[in-house]
């Protein structure tokens, strides 16, 4: 195949204990999947259908030090369990959904909250608030064959050593299997897809110089430090 320019490198994530990496195809994100976070964002935690949005595949990053993004004065942290899809499925039954899972990781859905709030008020898309460069710091993927399928366990985030988010996977409004099944009624899930499953309460601002520690029991730990703004 001839191209008018060299195609960009395939976005990928390391796999714990493996030499091969996981190629990223799409990133799907679930909004408001913990009751307390739904309330803090002004929503109703009743069990309405899950809300989905997306990030570009190359938003993933495993870099330890990241530049503070442009066009925001309110960068916000959101720690999440990330599901890595290794199978293909459409209209998947919840009972069969976990068979599509390759493994799990800990990720951050970094959000330019000020831009998101402006977009919400104007009824506009969230893309620039959620899908910017390096907006998805992530750990290596732990294969489900080694770690199983976590359905409970503490998930936390600290900023400069101060605990900000503290939840448990068993508090997900929609479970991993239910999320997979529901999403598969809208799109064909394929190997390389990632699903970010939502964040617990306590989301808050991040400033240049801040260090974030995220952890999900049995899955992994993530550390990120934000430096000066891009271009500084």
TrEMBL record:
Alphabetized UniProt keyword annotations: Hydrolase, Metal-binding
MF GO annotations: hydrolase activity
Highest taxon above the source species: Bacteria
Domain Fumarylacetoacetase-like C-terminal: 27-225
Alphabetized PANTHER family for the sequence: ACYLPYRUVASE, FLUTATHIONE S-TRANSFERASE
Identification of the protein by name: FAA hydrolase family protein
Protein source organism: Acetobacter musti
Record lineage: Bacteria, Pseudomonadati, Pseudomonadota, Alphaproteobacteria, Acetobacterales
